[in-house]
């Protein structure tokens, strides 16, 4: 009889198992819902904080932009006010170069603009400066009224190159630029002519000062004491015009070159070794603390640049 009652108990246990499994599934589902809700809440809070931070950042940027514009306008106003307040009321401005002024102010191609650019040259000719037309650009012996235009371009080129080289501090980069510069014969030729014209300008200035009984450097007195360079015209015709064509610079010309460039040129004359004339400076006594360059020469005609 006992053996016949055991099967119902087994069936009862089997009926209890599905209920236990359902209860476990409900707990897992409940925990998943709670976790999902918590993550959604955290993401919502984080998203709100991020949006709030972005809003504050945008507002701050807009504020600082308006502040920058306001301060800029105020500074501009005060700058203009102070300039008007303290600027001297000059009826006559500082002197300017007439040729450069006309070239800058009359740039058009109209007949009037061309005439205005030519008038200063005609004015200089009428005032006794037409002898400059005999200036020679190396083998080009006569340029006529075009001399001012050509000289202006040469001087402007020298100024540009001088400014560019002065801004280069690296030794190797400056050396590379020098090699490029002196590989262009036309460019080098124009720089030579600019230096010649600066020398002529210095001689003319010293000559005018001497005529007004003013003190001039002794090197110019030595220059004007020679029959072949008693005035700027004779200096140009007998000496300067030949430079770059049939001859180089003489010693007196080296003095003038150093003075014109405000550079102390130290020359080691190899053919004067073991004598007091082995080392010379042009000019001998610079007026100020001028920069110094060094050259080597074998015969006072051909010069070499030593690389230290």
From TrEMBL:
<dbReference type="GO" id="GO:0005737">
    <property type="term" value="C:cytoplasm"/>
</dbReference>
<keyword id="KW-0963">Cytoplasm</keyword>
<dbReference type="InterPro" id="IPR023236">
    <property type="entry name" value="OTULINL"/>
</dbReference>
<protein>
    <submittedName>
        <fullName>OTU deubiquitinase with linear linkage specificity like</fullName>
    </submittedName>
</protein>
<keyword id="KW-0472">Membrane</keyword>
<keyword id="KW-1133">Transmembrane helix</keyword>
<feature type="region of interest" description="Disordered">
    <location>
        <begin position="1"/>
        <end position="23"/>
    </location>
</feature>
<feature type="transmembrane region" description="Helical">
    <location>
        <begin position="42"/>
        <end position="64"/>
    </location>
</feature>
<comment type="similarity">
    <text>Belongs to the peptidase C65 family. Otulin subfamily.</text>
</comment>
<dbReference type="Pfam" id="PF16218">
    <property type="entry name" value="Peptidase_C101"/>
</dbReference>
<keyword id="KW-0812">Transmembrane</keyword>
<dbReference type="InterPro" id="IPR023235">
    <property type="entry name" value="FAM105"/>
</dbReference>
């Amino acid at each position: 009889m006992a053996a016949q009652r055991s099967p119902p108990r087994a069936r009862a246990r089997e009926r209890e198992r599905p209920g236990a499994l359902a209860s476990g599934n409900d707990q897992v589902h409940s925990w998943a819902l709670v976790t999902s809700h918590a993550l959604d809440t955290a993401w919502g809070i984080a998203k709100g904080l991020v949006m709030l931070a972005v809003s504050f950042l945008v507002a701050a940027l807009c504020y600082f932009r308006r502040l920058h514009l306001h301060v800029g306008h105020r500074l501009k106003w005060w700058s203009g006010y102070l300039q008007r307040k303290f600027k001297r009321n000059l009826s006559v401005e500082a002197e300017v170069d007439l040729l450069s002024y006309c070239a800058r102010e009359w740039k058009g191609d109209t007949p009037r603009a061309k005439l205005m650019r030519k008038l200063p040259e005609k004015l200089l000719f009428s005032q006794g400066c037409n002898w400059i037309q005999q200036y020679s650009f190396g083998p080009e012996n006569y340029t006529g009224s075009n001399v001012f235009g050509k000289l202006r371009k040469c001087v402007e080129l020298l100024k540009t190159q001088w400014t560019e080289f002065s801004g280069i501090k690296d030794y190797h980069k400056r050396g590379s630029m020098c090699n490029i510069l002196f590989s262009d014969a036309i460019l080098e030729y124009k720089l030579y002519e600019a230096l010649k014209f600066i020398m002529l300008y210095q001689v003319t200035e010293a000559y005018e000062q001497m005529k007004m009984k003013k003190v001039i450097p002794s090197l110019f007195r030595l220059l004007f004491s020679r029959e072949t360079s008693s005035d700027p015209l004779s200096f140009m015709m007998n000496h300067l015009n030949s430079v770059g064509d049939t001859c180089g610079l003489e010693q007196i010309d080296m003095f003038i070159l150093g003075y014109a460039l405000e550079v102390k040129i130290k020359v080691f004359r190899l053919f004067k070794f073991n004598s007091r004339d082995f080392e010379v400076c042009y000019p001998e006594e610079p007026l100020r603390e001028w920069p110094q360059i060094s050259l080597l020469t074998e015969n006072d005609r051909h010069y070499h640049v030593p690389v230290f």
